[in-house]
Amino acid sequence: MTWMSLFSLCFQTAGAYVATITAAIMVEIPRSLLFKCGWVGALGYLIYLLVMPGHGPAVATLVAGIGIAILSQLFARSFRAPVTMFYIPGFFPLVPGIGVYRTAFYYINDNPAQASYYMVQSALIAGAIALSIFLVDSCLEIYHHLRNQAKAKRKEQSHG
After folding, report:
1. Tens-place pLDDT, residues 94-146
2. What backbone phi and psi angles, to 5 degrees, belong to 132?
3. Residues near 20 by Cβ (< 8 Å), separated by ≥ 6?
4. In whole angstroms, what is the distance from residue 45 CA to residue 32 CA?
5. Distances 45 to 24, 60, 67, 70, 129 between C-alpha atoms, Å
């Protein structure tokens, strides 16, 4: 990795941190959580940047989304806040805004092939974001269910 690409990686991650904090301010996240939300978005975007070159935007978004969802769950428990306080601003850097813009732009300029390409890309990225939240939440739900079953079984055995 060259110095220039390392600088670019750091600069883009810092930009994601600022964008996430800005998004958190827009959705009125409490002041005490603003900078913590920034870390969720920045680390998620760093994962995206590291995965993107070898796997493309949809897979990179899925992997980064899983990272954001896990960090959001951890931060929510650590700072005793609803997980959505971290989810909503944390995913802002991954939202396919430019893809949706390009879809509309190419449709307006009578280029349906390009418009379709960007529409599919945007849909894949949006689906990857939704899937990442679903996967992490489902895994946590299964974990808690199994843990509660094991506790109940141990309690039953100790009383029985």
Report:
1. 999 999 999 999 999 999 999 999 999 999 999 999 999 999 999 999 999 99
2. -65, -40
3. 37, 38, 40, 41, 42, 89, 90, 92, 93
4. 22
5. 16, 9, 9, 14, 12
Structure tokens at 32: 């005490």
What is the amino acid identity at position 61?
A: T
Contacts of 125 (CB under 8 A, 6+ apart): 57, 58, 61, 94, 95, 96, 99
For residue 119, give every residue at least 6 positions away whose Cβ sits within 8 Å of its Cβ, in sequence order, or none: 99, 103
CA distance 30 to 37: 10
Indicate the pTM of the whole model.
0.90
